[in-house]
Amino acid sequence: MATLKEFEDSLREHGMHMALALLERLRARDRATRTIKPARRLTGQKMTPDLARAILDLHAATGMTQQEIAFKVGVNQGRVNEVIKHGKWLDDDPHAPEAVARDRAKARMRSDPVAKRPPAPRRASKSAKSAVKRTNAARPPSPQGQLIFGDL
After folding, report:
1. Is 56 exposed, middle or buried (0-12, 13-18, 19+ CB in 10 A)?
2. What are the per-10-residue average pLDDT scores of the chain (152 residues)?
3. Cβ count near 64 (within 10 Å)
4. pLDDT (0 to 100) of residue 102
5. pLDDT of residue 129
6. In whole angstroms, what is the distance from residue 63 CA to residue 48 CA?
7. Burial, 19: exposed, middle or buried (Cβ in 10 Å; 0-12, 13-18, 19+)?
8. What is the pLDDT of residue 131?
9. What value, to the nearest 5°, has the Cα angle with vertex 39 and ends 33 and 43?
10. 45, 77, 97, 139: which sits with the fewest CB atoms below 10 Å from its CB?
11. What is the rounded CA–CA span in Å between residue 98 and residue 100?
């Protein structure tokens, strides 16, 4: 598959100036109509049982994809998939796995992440390293020998 740049180079090599002019006019038209659009969704909605029911209704009544439903209701596609495939978020049970996971994540966000880090592993001191060297030096050599290519 050729890229647009390769296509343009090929047109230039073959002297197709009319096609190059047409390509340039299309580029100018695209630049003139190009706009910077805001993000599709600035903040996600909190999943509620009502929102989950609305997702199920949209899924059953329309032929919309999960991505289209997510865009329409203001959540991400993963949440729509959880509702449709796994029936999550359909009740207000605070002990439901998704509610427990949400609450844990919120608690982690509120807590100080630096204080929760495990302490860094300590490096061995020089005296401990020299003690290991001494014990290795005291071992007798193993009875295994080395093979040399000429031995075979």
Report:
1. middle
2. 84 92 90 73 72 92 90 89 86 81 85 62 63 58 66 60
3. 14
4. 80
5. 60
6. 23
7. middle
8. 59
9. 165
10. 139
11. 5
Kindly state the tokens that stand for 18: 């009319």
Question: What's at 27, amino acid-wise?
Answer: R
How far, in Å, are 63, 86, 123 from residue 135 at the CA level? 73, 59, 19
What is the three-state SS of the chain? Answer: CCCHHHHHHHHHHCCCHHHHHHHHHHHHHHHHHCCCCCCCCCCCCCCCHHHHHHHHHHHHHCCCCHHHHHHHHCCCHHHHHHHHHHCCCCCCCCCCHHHHHHHHHHHHHHCCCCCCCCCCCCCCCHHHHHHHHHHHHHCCCCCCCCCCHHHC
Contact in structure between 75 and 47 (CB atoms under 8 Å): yes
Residues with Cβ within 8 Å of 93's Cβ and at least 6 positions away in sequence, in order, are 99
- Tokens 């966000």 belong to residue: 109
Instruction: Write the single-letter amino acid at 125.
Output: S
* pTM of the complete model: 0.42
Residue 90: exposed, middle, or buried by beta-carbon count in 10 A (0-12, 13-18, 19+)?
middle
